[in-house]
Amino acid sequence: MSTEHTVAPYPPTDGTQPCAAEDPELFFVSSSSMGNYFQLPRALDVCKPCPFRRACLAYALTHDVSGVWGGTTENERARIRRQHGIAAEPVHTTDAAAREEEIAQLLRRGETPADVARAVGVSNQTVNNYIRRSAAS
């Protein structure tokens, strides 16, 4: 049972959303790392008052993104998708070269590393690693 859904656009990033004042790593919580796991309540609390929460959740439901989006975890979004027959569009490729090219294009456009990380669906550390490698070559 699959119904057709509109793919939501990337949520607004005008700097006024509560997550803009946080380290993007806060929203990439991994249950395999207990240190990161304890960040989850904080990440979810940041989302609660956000006026862009619905747009962020809509984007996350229609795209295959990692981390906390719209006040939900990856597991919660998977459950919602199953319940409503929503198929998530891939945000980025698993091909490292293609992903790095996508990061490079967004950085050339003047996007901040935090915005690039969110758009590509990777951690802020991944973008910073790319920037360091690029500067060294």
From TrEMBL:
InterPro entries: 4FE4S_WBL, Sig_transdc_resp-reg_C-effctor, WH-like_DNA-bd_sf, Whib. This is WhiB family transcriptional regulator. Keywords: 4Fe-4S, Disulfide bond, DNA-binding, Iron, Iron-sulfur, Metal-binding, Transcription, Transcription regulation. It is found in: Cytoplasm. PANTHER family: TRANSCRIPTIONAL REGULATOR WHID-RELATED (PTHR38839). Belongs to the WhiB family. The keyword Protein biosynthesis does not apply. It comes from the Bacteria. It comes from Nocardioides oceani. It holds the Pfam family Whib. Its cofactor is [4Fe-4S] cluster. Residues 18-79 form the 4Fe-4S Wbl-type domain.
